Fold this sequence. Notes:
CATH superfamily: OMPT-like
Number of domains: 1
Structural class: mainly beta
Amino acid sequence: MKFNERLFKEQHMRLNARTIIAAVLGLLVFIVTSNASAQEKREIEIGANYVAALGDLHWAFAHKDGPLGDPASTIDWTDLTTHIGEVYLQFSNPTGFYAKAVAGQGLLTEGLMTDRDFFQRQYKWSDMSSKSVSGGTNYALVDLGYTKHINGQWRVIAFGGYHYWREDVTSFGLIDNLYPNANPDLAQLDDQKVIRYETTWHAFRLGGGSGFTITDRWSLDVEWAFVPKAGMLNEDSHFLRTSRSDLGPVPNVLSHSSQGAGREVQANVGYRFPKNFQTTFGIRYWKLRATEGLTEFGPDFGNALLRLEESRQVGLLVGIKKTF
């Protein structure tokens, strides 16, 4: 859709993917070509993880004036259960510099969607839910960093990078939480698509961390990142409101912001086997949030105020990696 492409290019934070790729390739060339006499110290790590994740999405908007509340409407996606496969690749050279890439894709199997609308003084006049939710997620992270070994056991890291994160969720069926017996026709919508959310984040992150070798076999690594700037686009499709007299063709509600921020934390415990194989067990937490931006409603895409767009996820990881 041309309109969405324009929004993405003009309203979002303009993260130049070609610059990021060039920086990664430049560092990889440096890793491969530098210090040939110490080749045995160069490392390549390849790994894969399974991630069991639980997350939620939150959205709210307000009109610039009128009889509706502030926020006028909220949509909350909660208890989003996702099963993710993730791959991991890291190149390190003897000077301590490294490049790391992580990519994941997952299947969202369950969750709850709740859509509420308010008049002034936050008097709630509509409260609808869908208990059948499905969808998926995919993401990629690219970091450039430096590792400093303090002694034989302690090491610290500093890094900067880029995080792409997309979530796609769809709800089916409606339940009226305010007047459950007032509209028997809702029972006929159990298999009907109601709302689809497609939220995309482009985030710049800065962080650090530390690692500790507990024994010859066991190790602990902790990594945190602050996201000072993130761009967001949410394409919202209301499938029951597609007439030209209402919201028009889907996606018919667009929210965008270049003022997002967040934080990300991950901790891993590793156990090393012979021949440089290692199993990892970990936990991570991601949160990206924007409280300023625009929400535009079809069919003419008039402006309202974005009050909240938030994506959160906590995940438990188990995986294996090989060091060469």
